[in-house]
Write a structure and sequence with these properties.
This protein is mainly alpha-helical and 77 residues long. It has helices spanning 2-16, 26-34, 42-50, 54-68. The longest helix has 15 residues, at 2-16.
Length: 77
């Protein structure tokens, strides 16, 4: 269910964009309440993804699709 997703997605975000969602932060609370990644965190994730090689980026996107159950709109330029 959604809680499982939340438990998986937060460590993923922290792995890919360290410091973007500090433990105990308002962002963390908002995330657990809404289940949505705060818009202000998305640029950090996008930046992290754009720094990867294409294969790693594709694999991260696949991983995200699995845990979110949907594509997440992280733009990678």
């Amino acid at each position: 269910g959604p809680d499982r997703c939340k438990k998986m997605i937060l460590p993923w975000i922290r792995t890919i964009a360290p410091g973007s969602v500090p433990k105990g932060s308002q962002e963390e609370r908002d995330f657990f309440e809404s289940g949505h990644i705060a818009p202000e965190i998305i640029p950090a994730i996008s930046q992290a993804l754009s720094n990867m090689d294409p294969a790693s980026r594709a694999s991260q996107r696949d991983h995200l699709r699995v845990i979110m159950g949907e594509d997440y709109p992280f733009e990678t330029h």
